[in-house]
Amino acid sequence: MKKNLYKIFIAATLVLSVGCKDYLEYEPKGTLTANQLTTPDKVDQLVTAAYAAIGNDFWDGPITSMWAYGSVRSDDAYKGGGSVGDVGEYNTYEQYNLVTPTTIGNANNTWTRAYGAISRANFALKALNGLTDADFENKKVRQGELRFLRGHMHFLLKVLFKNIPYIDETLSEEDILKVSNRQYTNDELWNKIAEDFQVAIDNLPETQSQVGRANKLAAKAYLAKVRLYQAYQQDENHKVTSINPQRLNEVVALTTEVTNSNKYRLQPDFAENFLYGFDNGPESVFAVQFSINDGTEIGRLSMATSLNYSLAPQYGCCWFHIPSQNMVNAFKTTATGLPQFDTFNNEVVTDADLTPTGKPVDPRLDHTVGVQGHPFKYNPSVIYNHSWERIPELYGGFGNMKEQQEATSSSFKKVGPFYGSAKNIDIIRYADVLLWQAEALIELGRQAEALPLINQIRARAKNSTNRTKLANGTSPSNYNINEYVNGVNITWNQENARKALQWERRLEFAMESPRFFDLVRWGIAAETLNAYLNVEKTRKTFLSAAKFTKGRDEYFPIPQREIDFTKGLYVQNPGY
């Protein structure tokens, strides 16, 4: 899809310039209706327009990268920027100061864009429903793709807001206005989202001729993700009350089907997940597709992270999404190459510690964090420097790495004061699939089966050191990582396996956004984040008043404008 589907994206835009109102009803610009789009080629373009919609975002309301919602709200990152008030709503997320539903700022835009994408999928489904299988031989496949895309957007909204209205193609505009965000219980809403992925599984092939389209295995992986989240059953106040073994077994079965397909595998080098030129590789189960020089004015660039480049001479703005000291400390390892589970945060890691003979660390540190004197983005002639930091006395110390591309990359483009790239954003990596399966196995008491899955991830990390080297061929840090060996370097019981799994997810996906959502799923967000803040506020004074309120801050409030628009039909989340 990186090549041929972009031409279709442009054509689809010409046929249908899609837009969405501020709320839930959908109406394309112009006069076209689903009943008028009756030819297979036009309907196919509607499907492509639905694909485009899941990547139609900007930093002021992202639906691709969740850095502001899942990374900054966790213990992984600081907001960054030029001051605490610079994009101040993100500061309220970081400090958990969303005391009223009117303060959620850009999350309002995320709500609107996500439902806009759902509307595109529903519009295309209505048009598809008007065709017979004889009219359009790809009808069922395209229906499966659209259900996949709709499921993806509802999933995103659910982990952000929890209690959301579920909107499908059977609803008229009048019907939509009658749909409550409490129409379904928490469990029922997960089942509605799961239904979309099950339809996708039933209708999609394992391989698509155009790269980037959803396939059967991607749908199985996403359904596994839904069932894993659903397994951790929450009460009205977001407390995890139990873990459902039936759902866990579904996760194991679905992820096993994905792993046994031999279609996906880990990239040999961890770095390749974050470098342009490796998009749609063997680890990418499903990704939002981006492009450059495709005939449009600026290209279909990824702009959700466009604030997050540094003040290096080749960039110049804006230095958001900065690794926290806590997260950097988490990469430290013991003499035996394992995480320092209980003591990692007792001692601060500084530049002086990150040398070839310094404190031992997991190699993924240098793939994730910009460190003074270390190669930036795997280029030994471009060395990270503290002068790139916008307000070093406030947020400084380290820089982010994964989401950025070199200014010399053919994927990179300056857009006004911001920066975009054609690098895809992976929604599901194969590493996710392995760790979801490991997590389910551990919670089922089958931790011995999870051990080799976690060790696959660690083995890949150990072998991912070639690209991080300095110009003289040496490693910039003292890498020391090893696999877990039961009875040798760890007692692999359920408790220790759970700890290892949770640690592995943090290090593997650091600065990629899932951290906050993981903590909420596991039911440990308040405990983990308040412990983080109690120490971190002694290091960063801007966090002095930050506090996570249990039973409230696990989710955003429902946007007040949506409650007002529905005349109080929507019920606000607890605590707001």
UniProtKB/TrEMBL annotation:
UniProt domain RagB/SusD: residue ranges: 282-576
Annotated keywords: Cell outer membrane, Membrane, Signal
Pfam families per the UniProt record, alphabetical: SusD-like_3, SusD_RagB
Gene Ontology CC annotation, any one: cell outer membrane
Subcellular location, principal: membrane
Keyword Glycoprotein: no
Cellular localization per UniProt: Cell outer membrane
Domain SusD-like N-terminal: 22-228
The family this protein is said to belong to: Belongs to the SusD family.
Protein name, per record: RagB/SusD family nutrient uptake outer membrane protein
Native organism: Adhaeribacter rhizoryzae
Lineage: Bacteria, Pseudomonadati, Bacteroidota, Cytophagia, Cytophagales
